[in-house]
Specification:
The complex is a heterodimer of chains A (about 110) and B (about 160). By secondary structure, chain A is mainly α. Chain A contains four helices and no strands. With about 160 residues, chain B is mainly α. The chains are: A mainly alpha (about 110), B mainly alpha (about 160). At the A-B interface, α1 of A face α2, α3, α6 and α8 of B.
Amino acid sequence: MEDEKLMKEFFNNMKKQDEESIEIPAFPAKRKRKVRLSLVFSSLAVVVLAGIGYALLPSEGKATENVAEMSIIIETGPSLSSDYLIKEETTVSEWESPTASLINDF
Amino acid sequence: MTQKELEHQLKVMHKEAFLWARQCCFYDSDTANEVLQQVYLKVLEGRAKYRGNSTVKTWLFSVVKYTAIDLLKKESKFSSLDMADISRLPNDTSETETENYEALLKLLPERQQEVLLLVFYHNLTLEEVAEVLNVSLGTVRTHYDRGKKKLKELIQDKYAYGR
């Protein structure tokens, strides 16, 4: 029992001294997730580049405008008649060599 | 116990946990702070889980103890307290204004120091000490008895020869 008393006294005094001399660091507060600046800037850069790219692309309105300016004139005349363009071709079975007359049968 | 409740418990026991971490780190406050940061990180990340098998304090002290061992091993600061030099008795030091309890305790083997600190400083039972240090109750009792005897001698010597 005497030992116990001596121990308790020793450690109680040690505790008191610690309370006076030791600085207890603050309990770490929960930090909000830090938003990385580099990530923000790179995201912004991507958005800006996408915007610039979109602006530089020819829009649909402009395209129709250009198409409207183009004009295709189709002229028809005697030289372009469909009869002239479509030729009648013979089939293979009816084909005759143009030099067949030169062959002599003896 | 929910994560929020556990965090609250950690906050309540922060001071005691820091003091225990400091005692595990050879009374160095900076290392103790580092240990405690790692302990809280382990808890938040779920690497140290409280399963409700013991009290939160016992569990926390155990996590602190083993985190301190790991950190000290990494930093190669580990040195056996058994090798404490007898010439470091407080009588020989110049720290006369305040009692040097730590220096006196350092003269005990590491296990005896830990057991006495957990019992008398942190008010744990011998069973709880066995859980914290992950040793048998018989081993704790042996260190407890030997530690008390040795510390009593040191205290008596100290007062016999004056400060």
